Amino acid sequence: MKFISSLFGRMFIGAWLTAILMVFLAVYITHFREFGDPRQKDRWEGAELFREITDNLRISRRHGPEHFHHWLERLPADLQERIYALDHSGHELLNRPIPQSMAPLIAALNFRNREEHALVDKKPTIGFFVPQRGGDSLRVVFIAGRSKEELLVRFLLNNFWPILVLATLASGLACYFLARYLSKPLDNLRVASRRVAAGDLGYRVTPVLKGHSLELGELAADFDSMTAQLQESMAEQRRLIKDVSHELRSPLARLQVALGIARQKNVGALDPELDKIGKAADYLEDIIADILSLPVNSNDDRPLDDVVEVNSLLQALTEELQDEAQAQGVQFALRQGEREFLVATRGSSLTAALENILRNSIKYSPRGSAVELTVTAQPEQRCRIQVIDAGSGVPETELEAIFRPFYRTDEARTRESGGFGLGLAIAQRTVVQHGGVITAFNPKHAGLGISIELPLLDDAF
Fold first, then answer.
1. How far apart are CA 203 and CA 220, in angstroms?
2. Could you give the CA distance from residue 118 to residue 21 in angstroms, rounded to a whole number?
3. CB-based burial of residue 226 (10 Å sphere; 0-12 exposed, 13-18 middle, 19+ buried)?
4. Which residues, in sequence order, are bridge partners of residue 308?
5. What b/e sequence results for 405-432 when a residue is b if at least 16 CB atoms lie within 10 Å of its CB, and e otherwise?
6. What is the DSSP secondary structure assignment for residue 410, as one 8-state letter?
7. Where are the transmembrane segments (predicted)?
């Protein structure tokens, strides 16, 4: 059913049935014209009967019409229906009525026209005029074959399976390549749109569709122009955010200095207000730091020139965040893998991403709960890291959206609990740059789960 509902399947089946129908129509038209001439010997069914008729007509010239009458009486009924004989007075020898469609042919037979070919009821028919002794004569009409429609039906019935098999194979092969040729560009466009939707704005479809029709070439050019403009616009947007963030650091630094000087003056009445200003400045500093952590280009080609062991990294992170977790009344439950998992990395980028995920898990877990960390081996030289908190989770419809920059769920809008929506975005881009995949899910009887799959170095096995 999936094949039939696809564009390729519909094009293939439609073209295939059309081609088979055209083969049968070609056979019909060819034989229709071939059987149009009543004088064609190939159309006659009774060659032996024709010779027997002519032999008996020669004999009847010497012995009279009675000989032909006796011979005609001895024929089987199906053959008698194909032969009509009239004496000189127009009386049929077997007392049968003459078909009206046969009258013109009989009328055309005379001493000067002793043999005539015609179609009687669309059947090839031959008429003979045979002079007899004593001035008598005999007119004989012989229906030599069947109508062209009957012959075509018989031809198709007798050769139906060979025609069907040959037509099916030949047309099926031709239609397969035709449908493949027509649907392949659409498949390429579908792949391109998915890659662009996944964030690969540098992908271009024009080289793939090179050599196809003008319309598809123009569509590919328009698609590439759209993605190029989108890529440039997003790059400009990221650069603008980073430039603004850099510019904000200078007044923020001056604000921190002024805040420190104000605190040194020991004005007790202003301490609550200074604390609020300090918290706002720290919050702004965190935002700027996270924005500057976002890469300007999603396709970061810098090499992964360092190596980290996943079990040791998670062990170190849980020990480092132990005080923060205890302050929130949360514990870590770490289940490490049974062997080393070596992953290629760059600097502390992977460490920062995992730390961000662990901090989120601590933030959203209620007091007295635990954050579960699991490291397991996966096929194809990969490992999986799962972090599951005990919070309220995320709606299923928002599991993909939480990785977008500045996105926060309805339950995390406040500044105290929701942050500003950059942690998971940074983590996702970091994991992608490491050749991995990060996903979010809602585990049973728990809060939010984050799953990270990373490729391992060969030395890990």
1. 12
2. 32
3. exposed
4. 343
5. bebbbeebeeeeeebbbbbbbbbbbbbb
6. G
7. 7-29, 160-179
Instruction: Determine the distance from the C-alpha atom of residue 288 to the mean position of all C-alpha atoms in its chain, rounded to a whole number.
Output: 44
pLDDT for 89: 84
DSSP 8-state assignment for residue 92: B
Of 91-105, 249-263, 309-323, least confident by mean pLDDT is 249-263
The CA distance from 374 to 446, in Å, is 15
Whole-angstrom Cα distance, residue 435 to residue 174? Answer: 42
> What are the helix (H) ranges across 265-308?
271-293
Q: How far is the C-alpha of 371 from the C-alpha of 390, rounded, in Å?
A: 7
Structure tokens at 262: 């104000």
Q: Is the pLDDT of residue 460 over 50?
A: no
Structure tokens at 23: 């083969």
d(CA 57, CA 49): 12
Q: Which residue has the tokens 């709606």?
A: 395
Conformational region of residue 62, where left means phi above 0, alpha means psi within -120 to 50, and beta covers everything else: alpha
Q: What is the pLDDT of residues 55-85, one digit of tens each?
A: 888 888 878 888 888 888 888 887 888 889 9
* Residue pair 390/371 in contact by the 8 Å Cβ criterion: yes
Q: For residue range 371-407, what is the model confidence (pLDDT) as tens digits? A: 999 999 988 889 999 999 988 888 888 888 888 776 7
Question: Residues for the chain: how many in total?
Answer: 461
Contact 168, 56 (CB under 8 A): no
Q: Smallest Cα–Cα separation from 74: which of 93, 59, 98, 48?
A: 93
Cα-based torsion angle of the residue sequence 293, 297, 300, 301 in order, rounded to the nearest 10 degrees = -140
Positive or negative torsion for Cα 208, 211, 213, 215 = positive
Q: What is the structure's pLDDT at 385?
A: 93
Within 13 Å, how many C-alpha atoms sit on residue 51's CB side? 3
- Over the chain, what is the mean pLDDT? 77
For the chain, what percentages of helix, strand and coil (3-state, to nearest 5) are there? 55, 15, 30
**What would the pLDDT profile of 297-328 be if each residue is shown by its tens digit?**
555 556 777 898 999 999 999 998 998 899 88
Query: Is 433:417 a contact under the CB 8 Å cutoff?
Result: no
- The whole-angstrom distance between residue 187's C-alpha and the CA centroid of its chain comes to 6
- For residue 303, give both structure tokens: 């090499």
pLDDT band at 342 (very low <50, low <70, confident <90, very high): very high
Domains of the chain and CATH, by start: 2-37+154-186 (no CATH), 46-145 (3.30.450.160), 199-299 (1.10.287.130), 306-460 (3.30.565.10)
Locate tokens 């519909």: which residue? 10
Residue 114: per-residue pLDDT: 86
- Return the CA Rg of the chain: 47
